[in-house]
Write a structure and sequence with these properties.
single chain; 281 residues; alpha+beta; Pseudouridine synthase; nine-stranded mixed sheet; 17% helix
């Protein structure tokens, strides 16, 4: 079985637990793209079989989240599972003021990742170092926020929806929004609602997933065009060779003799393999 499943990860579960339930239920092996924190819920893209080798291509897709930011307290994890490390009064705010501040975080921005993150520092995960009580110095990095919509201001809680690129931490976004509002804060709820065109309303609880829910690998790569090869060109591509093509530049799903063979990239009229399925005997 090769392809992808859309899981709706429950709050309180690790992403690994959700994947383990799927694997035991369907007796398959695989992995997932885009870890969700245990306190978060929502869409998890799970790949099984040979589909996992195509995970890197999904990182171009924007991810949508809905979050709740509690103002007045910041935790070391920037979520409800951490220890409070700073408290500050919350100034008088209006919904209009919060929306005005939120606009400065749209576009390509610099962001410092959370101390408790899976990023590596000196060969070790940042969260492991943080749990040992060691100083974790993470450098700011460029991230992309395509959209940031403030939905409501309920007392000292800001509810917002965001559409972000790969590597963006919504926990850090919440921290920075709170500071820009003149206080501190941490996320108390986070739900991933979409990855590209995949939406959580199509996803299932890991305990309810069925084999019939499988999305074939080539269908999951929906944003890529198609190139069809036959004869010598198909054999050459399947063996890692390059072939001439009239297709425009970019990534394509490549079909050899009508069957999905992998992903290729066209540069200057030449199609070269980027990721191939193994040849069948």
């Amino acid at each position: 079985m090769d392809g992808f499943f859309l899981l709706d990860k429950p709050e309180g579960w690790t992403s690994r637990k959700a994947m383990n339930v799927l694997q035991r239920r369907l007796r398959v092996r695989g992995g997932y793209e885009g870890t969700l924190d245990p306190f978060a819920s929502g869409l998890l893209l799970a790949g099984v079989g040979k589909a996992t080798r195509f995970f890197p291509f999904f990182r171009v897709l924007l991810k949508e989240y809905e979050a709740a930011l509690a103002l007045g307290r910041e935790t070391d994890t920037l979520d409800p599972e951490g220890e409070v490390v700073e408290e500050a009064p919350v100034p008088p705010l209006t919904l209009e003021r919060v929306r005005e501040v939120a606009r400065q975080f749209v576009g390509h921005i610099e962001q410092v990742p959370p101390r408790f993150s899976a990023l590596k520092v000196g060969g070790k995960r940042a969260y492991a170092l943080a749990r040992e009580g060691k100083e974790v110095a993470l450098k700011p990095r460029k991230v992309y926020v395509a959209k940031l919509e403030v939905l409501a201001l309920e007392g000292n809680v800001v509810r917002f929806r965001c559409l972000v690129g790969s590597g963006t931490y919504v926990r850090s976004l919440g921290r920075d929004m709170a500071r820009a509002l003149g206080t501190v804060g941490h996320l108390v709820a986070l739900r991933r609602t979409a990855i590209g065109d995949f939406r959580v309303d199509r996803a299932k609880h890991p305990d309810e997933i069925e084999r019939e829910d499988l999305i074939p690998t080539d269908e999951a790569l929906y944003w890529m065009g198609r190139v069809h090869l036959s004869g010598r060109a198909a054999r050459l591509f399947l063996n890692g060779g390059r072939v001439k093509t009239d297709a425009g530049e970019g990534l394509y799903r490549v079909y050899a003799e009508g069957k999905f063979a992998g992903v290729g990239r066209v540069v200057g009229g030449t199609l070269k393999p980027e990721r191939l399925l193994p040849l069948r005997p």
